[in-house]
Amino acid sequence: MGSKLKVDNVCFSYYGLKGETKTIDNLSFEADEGEFVAIVGPSGCGKTTLLSCLSGLLVPTEGTITINGKHISEADVRIGYMHQKDLLFDWRDNYKNIALSIEISPFDKEERTENIKKLLETYDLKDFKHSYPSALSGGMRQRVALIRTLICKPDFLLLDEPFSALDFQTRLEVSDDIYRIIRKEKKTAILITHDIEEAISMADKILVLSKRPTHVIETIRIKLSVEDRTPFTARDAPEFSEYFHHIYKELKDGEIG
Amino acid sequence: MEKSDNGAVSYGQKQFMRKYRIRQIIIHTSRLLILVLFIGGWEMLTKYKIIDSFIFSSPSRIIKAAVKYWTDGTLKYHIGVTLAETFICFAIVILGGMAAAVLLWWNDLVYRILEPYLVILNSLPKSALAPLFIVWLGTGMRTIIVAAISVAIFGAIMSLYEHFRQTDPDKIKLIYTLGGNKLTVLFKVVIPSNKAFIINVMKVNMGLSLVGVIIGEFVAANAGLGYLILYASQVFKLDLVLLSITILAFVAAVLYLALDLLERFCLRSR
Ligand SMILES: Nc1ncnc2c1ncn2[C@@H]1O[C@H](COP(=O)(O)OP(=O)(O)OP(=O)(O)O)[C@@H](O)[C@H]1O
Ligand SMILES: [Mg+2]
Question: Are B238 and B180 members of one domain?
Fold first, then answer.
């Protein structure tokens, strides 16, 4: 099942003794079922804060967030959140790291435990099942974290710069993996990234955010004329550099203005 | 021995292992040598009356005393009392310390309120409380255990809490995004990520419990190794004093080694 997300005039402030930090200011957007939305914006503008609101960890000070028409606290969807760091626990082996998400929300346990084995094979991690995260390379760790997120069959994926710690090549590979899974299973996904090329190569739609307090400056639909679009082939599309320059300029103007 | 990828042991690896083994031999023989020289020197000095064996005792006199007091049951009894007191104190300090630290971690408001009192209680020299405990609780095991607990517990609470609080907030966030609650955070992140430190706290507090118990036995006991040391020194049985101290050193070492084994067992997988 896909999910339709609607973010309506959301505001968020952090409160502290030194005063209020207004972080999100009247931000609205929508993501349709199966749509892949990328969000780019200056560093520190409030992207992670926005994802925390979308996942229900933070409650907006104003505005509403709904999934399939229901408020997120009541919506019956499973949200998968992929963090910037892999956050693998070094006291658990790789298998148990993945199983963590099953331990915490233990419905259809058996089927999902079966699933771990399948996914470990798919990602060439079978031999590392019982080794510890410290024995893995950055790319492998990120894949284990990816399996941990996917094992609960989320309908809705939140990705907070999940590739930024990886070297260029691994980054392409992992983002290709994620792209395929999301497309195949028609999941709705929100991807935060610093990398404009990555955003264009993966997304159906890109939101460009302003600096803090952040709101949407522009929504750009990405249409690339390539057959069999993947993050690899997308980069060869004739429109690619045009989009790149456009977004680059938006971000630059946003930072000054 | 670790072998290189193709299975053969290279020249460099062999050299390394040779150096390593020589180093190990030096370390172990030197350790043994120090012990032999110390005991032998002590024995010689007393034998040739360079120092007075009545005041300084001597290894042979200590062994004689050991045989005597072991066969008449004195040693067994006093060691048993000290060990029992130490274990009870240790168990209460660790269980109580963990419970209190978890409570403070759970509710920051409680910590904020209690912080100044904890700091004061922690820095107060606990031996100053001993006379008070004697007045309130009389002499005997109960007083000793309470005194020993007071020596160790506040430090245990403070340091455990401090480490719990410093648990990686991102890992805590991960648990919440996976659908967990505060209890899940406690058992899946806070305690396991601090496992090494908790064992370290156990090591330190095993030592502190013993210190507390001996202090307690000095002032308020009629049994235990601390009592034996004090009593024997008052009647100038220096053989017995030094015997008791030697036994105490052994007891401390054995307790430490036990926890060291526990540590290796718990952390072996990393
Ligand atoms: N817990 C908090 N309390 C107070 N202020 C916070 C808190 N978390 C974040 N902020 C502030 O809110 C603003 C937005 O932070 P956020 O982490 O959402 O930015 P970001 O866009 O994700 O940044 P980056 O690109 O570096 O990841 C920052 O100015 C930050 O200082
Ligand atoms: Mg961020």
Answer: yes
Residues whose CB falls within 8 Å of the CB of residue B79, separated by 6 or more in sequence, listed in order: B225, B247, B251
The amino acid at A248 = Y
Give residue-wise pLDDT tens across range A16-71. Answer: 999 999 999 999 999 998 899 999 999 899 999 999 999 999 999 999 999 988 99
Count of domains for chain B: 2
Residues B47 and B64 in one domain: no
Q: How far is CA B66 from the centre of its chain?
A: 24
Residue B217 falls inside a structural domain: yes
Q: Backbone phi, then psi, for A11, in 5-degree steps?
A: -120, 145
Alpha helices in chain B, H assignment, sequence order: 11-47, 53-56, 59-71, 74-106, 108-123, 130-137, 141-165, 169-177, 182-185, 191-193, 195-220, 225-234, 238-266
CATH code, domain with B260:
1.10.3720.10
**What's the ipTM?**
0.89
B22 has a pLDDT exceeding 90? yes
Q: List the single residue in A85, A93, A100 with the smallest CB-CB distance to B178.
A: A100
The number of angstroms, rounded, from the C-alpha of B264 to the middle of its chain's C-alpha atoms is 16
Q: For B100-155, how does the pLDDT look when each residue is reduced to its tens digit (9 = 90+)?
A: 999 999 999 999 999 999 999 999 998 888 889 999 998 889 999 999 999 999 99
Q: How confident is the model at residue B89 (pLDDT cuts 50, 70, 90)?
A: very high
Residue A46 Cβ < 6 Å to ligand 1: yes
**B111 and B90, same structural domain?**
yes
Digit-coded pLDDT (tens) for A216-238: 999 999 998 888 888 888 888 89
* pLDDT score at A24: 96
Q: Locate A203 and state its tokens.
A: 């997304």
**Taking CB atoms and an 8 Å limit, are B177 and A81 in contact across chains?**
yes
Domain range for B26:
11-51
| Residue in this structure with the two tokens 């904890």, named with its chain if needed | B118
Residues B143 and B85 reside in one and the same domain: yes
A256 pLDDT higher than 70: no
Q: Are residues B221 and B264 in the same domain?
A: yes
Nearest-atom index, ligand 1, CA of A41: 21
Does residue B4 belong to any structural domain of this protein? Answer: no
Q: Minimal Cα–Cα distance from B173 to chain A, Å?
A: 8
**pTM reported for the whole predicted model:** 0.86
Atom of ligand 1 nearest to the CA of A194: 25
Q: Are A219 and A41 in contact (CB under 8 A)?
A: no
- Classify residue B111: in a domain, yes or no: yes
Neighbour count for residue A198 (Cβ, 10 Å): 22
Cα-Cα-Cα-Cα torsion A142, A143, A145, A150, nearest 10 degrees, comes to: 140
Question: Which residue among A12, A20, A47 has the greatest number of ligand 1 atoms within 8 angstroms of its CB, and so is best to mutate?
Answer: A47
Identify residue A240 by its one-letter amino acid code.
F
Query: B128-139 burial, b if ≥16 CB within 10 A, otherwise e?
Result: ebbeebbeebee
